[in-house]
Write a structure and sequence with these properties.
Blueprint: H1 5-24, H2 29-37, H3 41-66, H4 71-94, H5 99-116, H6 120-127, H7 133-161, H8 165-184, H9 197-239, H10 245-273, H11 276-295, H12 301-329, H13 332-361, H14 367-406
Helix pairs in contact: 1-6, 1-7, 1-8, 2-3, 3-5, 3-13, 4-5, 4-8, 6-7, 6-13, 7-10, 7-12, 9-10, 9-11, 9-12, 9-13, 9-14, 10-12, 11-12, 11-14, 13-14
């Protein structure tokens, strides 16, 4: 029985949701693992670091393979590997009581995540019709942001029941999603013949080199500002005598909620914007720069929370517009590889943002916001002409392709 396309798009959008949950839920577990297994803080933090490093390294490989084989089958297998990694970590923590097994499970989970996370955007784009690809891409970003919003709360709740419960949650969620994709996502396209790939690559780089440069740069800067801003706000809340500790998590969820709202709004309207959706990338970064600049103007906690939340809205607008631009511009033959490189660039944000913000805190509580504001503004200024010219290049390449088809 043929399933509606929107069911497949929904299943593809759940990939970043589940994998974001599977990683961020581990944050509350790190100190518990340190005390339970008697490991150093550095060793305990490898639960997060090992997963992220493996994901960054292997994501381009996953994108490369997804342009040469079935994306549906690759996603099913990769999520099954991620589920197996969660199961190994859960058994290592609960039955074997071995931190080495826990870490091994997280590494296996990272491999599965690396081969499935980059598939969400191209898979959803393949399933959507040409006029609905921007909206489909927006839904994948909504899944990502909702995962970021829910993961600290869900991770803390599971960890209070049992410190190894988040690992079992990864096993259940990834395994269920693998089966869901097998059921909901149809096999839409045959793999591209290898003889066609060189021409597709030449056309993609000639038509979209400026767009790719702008989106990779803006994606990395957006995530750098997001995680840097959240870490700065978290440290300010921890140092504030007027904010009870139990409220910190709730207050930090406000920027995440604004990020999610921006992704939803931008995704719903991106198909109507077409070329202006590329302008939304630069405008989102400029909005973030202004908001973080406002955050640096006062040490009042309410003011900083509001300013960082508005900055998160700008980031949500920018990254969802990036997804929509890539989904509509890139052809099926190269969509997997080029979008996976963008996903890897985004992972630089959570890798570099927190240590940068923590270091800048030593120069004053407002310094990180000022520096992040300057970075966002510089990126907005740098990408604006690239995005404008990328629209012109894309139109020229489309005309050439139509002329070649008629000759």
């Amino acid at each position: 029985m043929r399933r509606p396309a929107w069911l497949g798009i929904l299943a593809a959008s759940l990939i970043p949701f589940v994998l974001t949950l599977g990683n961020s839920m581990m944050v509350p577990v790190v100190p518990v693992m340190q005390s339970t297994f008697g490991v150093t803080p550095t060793a305990a933090s490898l639960l997060i670091t090992a997963y992220s490093v493996i994901a960054v390294v292997l994501m381009p490989v996953a994108g490369f393979l997804s342009d040469r084989m079935s994306r549906r089958r690759l996603a099913i297998a990769a999520l099954a590997v991620a589920a197996a990694g969660g199961g190994v970590a859960a058994l290592g923590a609960s039955a074997a009581h071995s931190y080495a097994w826990v870490l091994l499970g997280r590494i296996v989970q990272g491999v599965g995540a690396a081969f499935s996370m980059p598939l969400a955007l191209p898979l959803a784009s393949d399933l959507a019709d040409p006029h609905g690809r921007g909206r489909a891409a927006g839904f994948t970003e909504v899944g990502n942001t909702v995962g970021k919003l829910m993961s600290p709360i869900l991770g803390a709740l599971l960890a209070t029941w049992a410190f190894f419960a988040p690992f079992w949650a990864v096993f259940a969620l990834c395994g269920t999603l693998s089966a869901t994709i097998a059921w909901m996502v149809p096999e839409r396209r045959a793999p591209v013949p290898r003889s066609h790939l060189p021409a597709a690559w030449r056309l993609a780089f000639r038509a979209h080199a400026k767009l790719l440069t702008a989106t990779y740069l803006s994606g990395a800067v957006s995530m750098l500002c997001l995680f840097g801003g959240l870490v700065s706000l978290s440290e300010s809340l921890a140092d504030s005598a007027h904010v009870p500790e139990w409220q910190n998590g709730l207050l930090l969820s406000i920027p995440q909620a604004m990020l999610c709202l921006a992704s939803l709004v931008t995704g719903l309207f991106s198909d109507r914007w077409k070329a202006p959706s590329r302008a939304a990338i630069a405008l989102g970064l400029a909005w973030t720069a202004a908001s973080f600049g406002a955050a640096s103007a006062s040490q009042d906690m309410a003011w900083q929370i509001a300013a960082v939340s508005l900055g998160a809205y700008g980031i949500g607008t920018a990254i969802t517009a990036i997804d929509a631009s890539l989904a509509t511009a890139l052809s099926h033959e190269v969509r997997g590889t080029l979008s996976s490189l963008y996903t890897s660039a985004r992972f630089l944000g959570p890798t570099l943002g927190p240590p940068l913000a923590s270091w800048l805190q030593g120069f004053g509580a407002r310094t990180p916001y000022a520096v992040l504001s300057a970075i966002a503004l510089a990126a907005a200024i740098a990408i604006a002409p690239l995005l404008r010219r990328s629209t012109q290049d894309g139109e020229s390449a489309a005309r050439e392709q139509r002329q070649a088809a008629h000759t």
